[in-house]
From TrEMBL:
Keyword Repeat: yes
Upper taxonomic lineage: Bacteria, Pseudomonadati, Pseudomonadota, Alphaproteobacteria, Hyphomicrobiales
Protein keywords: Aminotransferase, Repeat, Transferase
InterPro entries in the cross-refs: GlmS/AgaS_SIS, GlmS/FrlB_SIS, SIS_dom, SIS_dom_sf
Protein source organism: Bradyrhizobium rifense
GO BP: any one term: carbohydrate derivative metabolic process
GO molecular function: carbohydrate derivative binding; transaminase activity
Source domain of life: Bacteria
Name of this protein: SIS domain-containing protein
Residues in coiled coil: none
A Pfam family reported for this protein in Swiss-Prot or TrEMBL: SIS
């Protein structure tokens, strides 16, 4: 059985290439505009996987520019009706469908509050796309599986290309140019031994730090959606502050290990969790798959590693769902477009 989810994971490289090609001129103009504006704040707007994209964008913005970047809860606009005070700032709304009323309303409130309203949207005919001052199409194409994969990766690529253009970061831009081929070449199935280690799990921790925290959140969401595993994401800097008490022999811990400055601080935490009985599975760049390690392709900039990591993880989630007798394309209680107010 070839699932739509697996097919769409395989289309992620082409989607990234389309986006980078079609948005090149827009990004050059946007980069110049952001440098001229010099915003004191970037406010993000999103839910679900799109909010995980926003968390990734947060780390890129703060690491490469020093400008604070934070997510605004859409209920501030839809329920509490609080006027926003965002003069001189930038809002970035991220959405596959662009049709959830609360996301559209929050973008409207940010724009009314003085923010430059930028949207990363897959459906360019959607209300969110039409109302944005600046639109960066995700170019992911139609996505049929309820579990978002290629549109999520397109959102991550959109955030990285936005920051590369704004900061005139040549290393990041060059690595982005090579990313589609990296994704296209990353097609190996996950090791059966890792599937077996996770097959009886009812709960799990998913850990990251720095930019990999964003994909830890996305991976935990995907384990819930596709496998009905109660997975929770934590920063490796936080998990020992209470959550570690849940660890018992065999408790799964999936860790996205970056190669940047966040890596060394994660290693003692993983050792402590393993000593408490956890089954630790790492996902990291380079090398080969092992029974407790999922290897990803290397990419030219460490801040792009999360994109390659989550792409490889998606194949693990899809294979695990099938191993558990579940249909990852059609979760029981979910639908593709979730509209909230």
């Amino acid at each position: 059985m070839t699932t739509q989810m697996l097919q769409e994971i395989g289309e992620a490289g082409d989607a990234a290439a389309r986006q980078l090609g079609q948005n090149a001129e827009r990004l050059a103009e946007l980069g110049a505009r952001l440098r001229a504006l010099d915003p004191p704040l970037v406010a993000t707007i999103g839910r679900g996987s799109s909010d995980c994209c926003a968390l990734y964008l947060k780390y890129l913005v703060e690491i490469l520019s020093g400008v604070p970047c934070a997510s605004i809860g859409p209920s501030i606009a839809t329920l509490y009706r609080t006027p926003m005070r965002l003069a001189g700032s930038v809002s970035v709304a991220i959405s596959q469908s662009g049709r959830s009323p609360d996301i559209v309303e929050m973008q409207r409130a940010a724009r009314d509050g003085g923010a430059l309203a930028l949207a990363l949207v897959n459906d360019v005919a959607s209300p969110l796309a039409q109302e944005a001052e600046i639109l960066l199409p995700l170019c992911a194409g139609t996505e049929r599986s309820v579990a978002a994969t290629k549109s999520m990766i397109a959102g991550l690529v959109g955030g990285a290309s936005l920051v590369a253009a704004w900061r005139e970061d040549r290393q990041l831009a060059a690595a982005l140019a090579g990313l589609p081929d990296v994704l296209r070449a990353q097609a190996a199935p996950p090791p059966a031994t890792i599937l077996e280690r996770l097959a009886n799990a009812r709960s799990a921790f998913v850990l990251g730090r720095g930019a990999t925290l964003a994909i830890a959140a996305e991976a935990a969401l995907k384990l819930k959606e596709t496998c009905a595993i109660h997975a929770e994401a934590y920063s490796a800097a936080e998990v020992l502050h209470g959550p570690a008490e849940l660890v018992a022999p065999g408790f799964p811990v999936i860790a996205f290990l970056p190669s940047d400055a966040a890596r060394e601080g994660m290693l003692p935490t993983l050792t402590a969790l393993a000593d408490a009985g956890a089954t630790v599975i790492t996902i990291e760049a380079g090398g080969a798959d092992e029974s407790d390690r999922l290897a990803t392709a290397r990419v030219g900039a460490p801040l792009l590693e999360p994109i390659v990591m989550i792409h490889r993880f998606y194949r693990l989630a899809e294979a695990l769902a099938l191993r558990l007798g579940r249909d990852p394309d059609r979760p029981r209680n979910l639908r593709k477009v979730t509209e909230t107010v």
